From TrEMBL:
It comes from the Bacteria. This is O(6)-alkylguanine repair protein YbaZ. GO terms for molecular function: catalytic activity. Keywords: DNA damage. Residues 15-90 form the Methylated-DNA-[protein]-cysteine S-methyltransferase DNA binding domain. One of its GO terms (biological process) is DNA repair. It comes from Sediminihabitans luteus.
Length: 119
């Protein structure tokens, strides 16, 4: 909130993105689109590009490397460090090692809800 007691929409969006990204388990990955869908379920706004912007501006304290594009590629300007971190966590990558194998490693926030209700 700002001094007038109103909520800053940009900070609210950033906080929700960070909450979702913090939940991605080690060795798994998700997409900007999935994060955007989860945030939109709470705030009713935003999309994949907004998620990328939020992570670029304030995501240093969360496992940002676990968020990739729909093809499984990490951000081009951080690809090497992201792939190194993903490999270190045992995240399944494609045969050429340049992308996350989302069929094996993909995570969605609603998995937590399903696990909580069945386990």
């Amino acid at each position: 909130m700002d001094p007038a007691g109103t909520i800053n929409p940009a900070l609210e969006y950033l906080d929700e993105v960070l909450r979702v990204v913090e939940r991605v388990p080690a060795g798994r990955a998700t997409t900007y689109g999935v994060v955007a869908e989860a945030v939109a379920a709470v705030l009713g706004r935003g999309g994949p590009r907004q998620v990328g912007t939020a992570l670029a501006r304030g995501g240093a304290g969360v496992p940002w490397w676990r968020v990739v594009n729909a093809a499984g590629s990490p951000p081009a300007h951080h690809a090497s460090s992201a792939l190194d971190a993903l490999r270190a966590e045992g995240c399944p990558l494609t045969a050429d090692g340049t992308r996350v194998d989302l069929r094996r490693a993909g995570w969605e926030p609603w998995e937590d809800d399903a696990t909580a209700s069945t386990g």
